[in-house]
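Entry for the shared binder. Reason: the reviewer on the internal report wants the predicted structure included alongside the sequence.
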Amino acid sequence: MRRGDRRPRDRGLYVEIRIAAPLERVWELTQDPDLHARWDARFSRITPTAVRENGAQEFTYELALGVHTIRGTGVSLGEKRAGAGQRTSALLFTTDDPLSPLGDGRGYWRYIPTETGIRFITGYDYEPGWGPIGRLLDPIITRPLVWWLTAWSFDRLRMWAEQGIVPERVGWWRGLFGGPRASPRNCLSSPPLRRGAHNRGASPSATDATSRGRDYVLDDAPRTLDELGDVDAIRRRESGAS
């Protein structure tokens, strides 16, 4: 591939976990905004705002950090008929918050039934926030941390779906004092065909986050992701609403 032909964003993140629970249960816990915000540490609140003609759900999101709350907007579209009993969900998100380490992003979830439960998968990518400093820090700090946080959240979801352990019992400090403990080690950082010796058990290094995301993570996104348009469309709709 010539240098000029290289795609500018081949850094997509991949997280996969096996959940021994019915598909409908995993779908409920991930598609309901209130339930989603309880297990996913990347959000403190998700508030639906509108439904498009194609069924896509527009929403606002918050991440409370104590001294500051990051706010943004997004749109998602779930699909129950993706073939072979699978389901998918596509997502776009954006924020104007200058303190957010993540800017515009896009991604998907896949729900793949197996004999023992569900393979729950995400692939996503984003533009770094914080300007030039953010672009410098992203591959060495932010992106591996985002992978770890996503994987930790996925295991918290697994515990809720399998054992009924509510996310509020699986906090950062509770595990240190004998409480239920979620672990990113239960997740994979690349698809099975690309799985390497170090895929299970730790967040990807800067090299992993770049090379393993190339040419297959977002290439495997469902067609519904294209139906959502782009983040500029979200901004235009917001401007029209205001």
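Summary line for the report: The chain has six helices and seven strands.
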